[in-house]
Fold these 4 entries.
Entry 1:
Amino acid sequence: MWLKSSGLASQAPLTPVARPSAGPRALWPPLDFTLGALACCGACVFTNPLEVVKTRLQLQGELRARGSYQRHYRGVLQALWVVGSTDGLRGLQKGLTAALLYQGLMNGVRLGFYSYTEAVGLTDAPGGSLISGAAAGALGAFIASPAYLVKTHLQAQTVAVIAVGHQHNHQGVLSAFVSIYQREGVMGLWRGVNGAVPRVMVGSASQLATFSSAKDWVTRAQWFDPHSCLTALTAAMISGVAVTITMTPFDVISTRLYNQPVDEFKRGRLYCGFVDCLMKVCATEGIMGLYKGMMPVFVRLAPHTVLSMLIWDVLRQRALLYRH
């Protein structure tokens, strides 16, 4: 008989075996969590400068009609140059510590949960990959929301001459957590989570489902050796395109909700929630306002998806081979 690949776990596809398979192979959950966290943290180190630029572009011209504000950032390369020349090279890695914390928590939970649903066969049902990916993303986004909040604040901070959006003026990651807690309490650390959960649900569902499907397709086409990294690389590139198209509007709304200032009653000064933000952006900036920063979103997401999915797939393959 033939052993079929189970999506994200790189098992030996189309390999003859002497006896029936014992079923889906799963890693020890804490190990799967660790591998997912390591994979996405490794990718984050390289893509964080693009995340800084994406955040600035999405906050630029907030709730203002096109042409009525000064554009400090005009594209990915120009924005990278402006940030680097004004804030220095360290400015390109603003919020890196919070970003690593977010990636480790969110993706450790997300990828670990998804691989578990895959191992028990939930992803084999019709729509199973989409539902499992969305559920995994929602869980990861909720747990890691405070880290994303601080990351957004820190990456928006800069000198007045190129500042966009509200400036929170935190002194660092720890002081940001303390400041938010003292001002808004525990619930303040989860402010903006109503934008983060749908953002990551959509992105996670499209990323994991398309990666699984693309990987199976490339494997069946036998373009590469079954154990080649090129199989995961090709699938991750396809997945990156899908994530960019589906997630950008949710990403813009999430960034706006996280970065908005709050009043004395601990309520957002600009938006009441996800739907209110969506309506206000469309009314003042037009539909294209929801796609601000789409190019840096793709430029960041494509390599991030490629790196994180590739590293995770390779690490899990090695762990499975070591275990068996």
Note: The chain has nine helices and two strands.
Entry 2:
Amino acid sequence: MATGGKVIRCKAAVAWEPNKPLVIEEIEVAPPQANEVRIKIVATGLCHTDLYHLFEGMHKDGFPAVLGHEGAGIVESVGPGVTEFQPGDKVIPLFLSQCRECRFCKSPKTNQCEKGWAVDRYDVMALEDTRFTCKGKKVLQFLGTSTFSEYTVVNQIAVAKIDPTAPLDKVCLLGCGICTGYGAAVNTAKVEPGSTCAVFGLGAVGLAAVMGCKAAGAKKIIAVDINPEKFEKAKVFGATDFVNPKDHDKPISQVLAEMTNGGVDYSLECTGNVGVMRSALESCIQAWGVSVIVGWTELHDVATRPVQLVKGRTWKGSHFGGFKSKDGVSEMVKAYLDKKVKVDEFITHNMTLDQINDAIELMKHSKW
């Protein structure tokens, strides 16, 4: 392309400091260096993790930054050493790398990778090195992706090539939320046919977890949320029951135990709230229940009493749904095109980059 090897000036939403609105700025995006890919972002989702960094985590070294990590686009140019991609390829940038060479990538036991932004700076949520500048200042690339920009530069180990027929304004959601929830049920919990499940939190991740439970053959899927407006949407993805903790004067774990003869077989926590994590664990049947922590937080410790585990429960975590990132995203795009997973049904609003702060307000007030 004509822009290859040149600095691109484009529009991006910059988070100059924590707990403040994003600012639409013209930024400079440097050409890709060795093993890097420059991508024209066509569509991006807004994920709660973006809000977490802006309003909750607020790490002093994590700003200024361009947020966004749930995008899809088209390769504009590639740096030296890149052989897997070429200009024109449809791709999804990934916040989780898959180098295929490290001990984690070679192991079937994990989807983690020893390379990428998270190795040394997971608390800052961005590498110190960046291809973005604005007004003479270095701007960090959030989670190594920064999809709230018209162009971004990503290491090739964190890019998935996808089917050229895939609609980018839909499959962008497979870059985080849908894979995270769906995979937590299918890959991490390993939900079995005929089982009972509870999903705590009905945002996109929770709804995807519901979809995963259904795909795995669960017979009873209890959706738990304090917003009753979420239930109709949850039914679309396979929920059979809905429980609002506010409707009860007893712990939610006790409510679910009474509904399921002692507790559910599987519970998935999709809120990032440590109190809910404990409730989800204690909602499992004590003999063999499996509870999966899916929601992200670094702010508080999580706790329970040892007896909750001693009797046979398993408490585990799930990162990006257990999917090996490059492989898993490509497979999920194919599954969507084959109508095996839902994606369109997750979309509630279509907005422009200029409306990013309006989108953030919608999410903060559970209208998204």
Note: Residues 78 and 165 are 21 Å apart (CA to CA).
Entry 3:
Amino acid sequence: MATSILLSNSFSTISQFTGRPKFIFSNPKLNLTVTPINSYSNIGFLKGTQLLPSNCLRKSRRVFVIGESDTSVSKDGLVGEDSANFDLAKQKITSWIYFTGVLGVVLLILDVAWLDNSTGFGKVFIDSVSSVSDSPEVAMFLLTLIFAVVHSGLASLRDPGEKLIGERAFRVLFAGTSLPLAVSTIVYFINHRYDGAQLWQLQNVPVLHHLLWITNFVSFFFLYPSTFNLLEVAAVDKPKMHLWESGIMRITRHPQLVGQVMWCVAHTIWIGNSVAVAASVGLIGHHLFGAWNGDRRLAIRYGEAFEVVKSRTSILPFAAILDGRQKLPKDYYKEFIRLPYLTITGLTLGAYFAHPLMQAASFRLHW
């Protein structure tokens, strides 16, 4: 991608560097002290020889960005990427055939090596964790904690891991380790969600089920922004660390945290017992750490570009919009009328109606 420069609103032109970098600002009052903008040592995005006048960095809130990356400046002023942008014309049938094959192989290995009680290690793992305490709350929390440590730990090792074994191999390692632990945690929750002490009983409250159902439904639009590119998830395409900025990211910079909180609150209110509380504490704690860790990793990877995105987004939903840091486009709704969001809608509705099947499958595992 061509090297580019983002100018603040005070300037009307966009120029490109060729050869040795030179300043394009004609104002004689510019401070000629140069400041490298790649203070985060961002390899591949900002080059050490690309410099800007230091007082230009203070010209406006839109910091100048130079570099080669997937986060080149778009015509609508985005420094980050346009999330959920699915271009059907760019899709290859062979890639999706390959994806289907990879998915089938993964599910087969998961069944044989983990789920099947006669051949897999899933039941042994659950029994080992459960042996720590007779309390289902303790087991539930420990399962969540183990998943969180492995998942976030491997995420933190992504940069050195990809350099060591490559992007695709590290994605296989990451998914192959995280997926079985996630399945075990979910299955244990389904099978033991009504164990433990009943703290409250609100299931007979009128309209409550409908309110919680809507909350849970909306939560999935926040929970899965990282799966916008399924081909990368399955390592069919080379996995990348994305700096999303549009769509749900305008509402909150950490939609998975917000979605997880919504899901946990809805399920805990409905179930009303100590196991649900233990699961929610573990999951929300994991995502709070993930939000901090995610910002840290993006700052290392994207440097000043991430600081720009961070300055006009918020963790608390709608906070950046309300205080004027985030300006929504007039056609903002179009950022949601896209295939990935439609897919999430269909899968969420399908998962709701498939609850009896999910419960029956979990019960058969005897975990």
Note: Strands lie at 4-5, 34-36, 51-53, 66-67.
Entry 4:
Amino acid sequence: MSSKSPNSLFGMGNPLLDICAVVDKDFLDKYALKSNDQILADDKHKALFEELVKKFKVEYHAGGATQNSIKVAQWMIQEPHKVGTFFGCIGEDKFGEILKQKAEEAHIDAYYYEQSEEPTGTCAACITGDNRSLVANLAAANCYKKEKHLDLEENWRLVEKAKVYYIAGFFLTVSVESILKVAKHASENNKMFCLNLSAPFISQFFKDNLMQVMPYVDVLFGNETEAAAFSKELEFETNDLKEIAKKAQALTKVNKERQRIVVFTQGKDETIMALSDKIETYPVIKIDPKDLVDTNGAGDAFVGGFLSELVQMKPLDQCVKAGHYAANVIIQRAGCTFPEKPNFS
């Protein structure tokens, strides 16, 4: 099997349609949003989605963190198509059709669990300057069922085909049993399982689910605010990113044949990677502030670039370099979108 064979990269998560708009501070204040955050929508945000569409110029992009990363990885790889597989739940509606169409255009092998009880999930990306505040209304994405989809023989076969697995921490709120089934398969077969801390609220409110999965995690991703929240919840008693990376690396691990790798990005500052017994730092690609369009999707793009090299068994510093390249491309465009072909070597 070539390292770039179809279905060798597997992702599972919340497929969402992003509704992106540049907003003003009044809008953020009205809905009590921080300028740079990710939250789940509750009742007070119901009107937000309607107001966003009415009041501002919106763009729709196929989104959801894991799906974004799988798409970026596929874009970086180019050929063959369908190296990336994606599982998630959508509604039988217009937004669901858009997501299916966009997945096909991105050449990923998306197998959606489709149900009619809930509509396809959406995510409001409220952009101010170079910040973005994300409000996710999971809806259908929250309805993923292990026994209705993951356990089906024809679907599980696709899981078995993969060599690298990636799930964003957001999915911990939906189906921890699905994550554990995939994570255990990876661990038992000495394949690579990757997880993202995704947002501070995951560590704060879903810590038990996160720590159930952590022993199977070979590569842990996060940014500086997520790492700080993780450190606080686990009582690491440090805000030093390098120390947090070391402590996260030292957490219990089931598959002893692979030492955990921890990768923390911090926006325009250097990326930190804990591997074996050392900490490496990697500067990001410099960008002129006037070329910065939208940081929404930068973290997902970094992971996508990283995974595109990881699935080809490339050295880890090359994985980081690819992550930085992909993120640099994505922040110069609206949404998690990219040109036809990458220019990376």
Note: The mean pLDDT is 95.
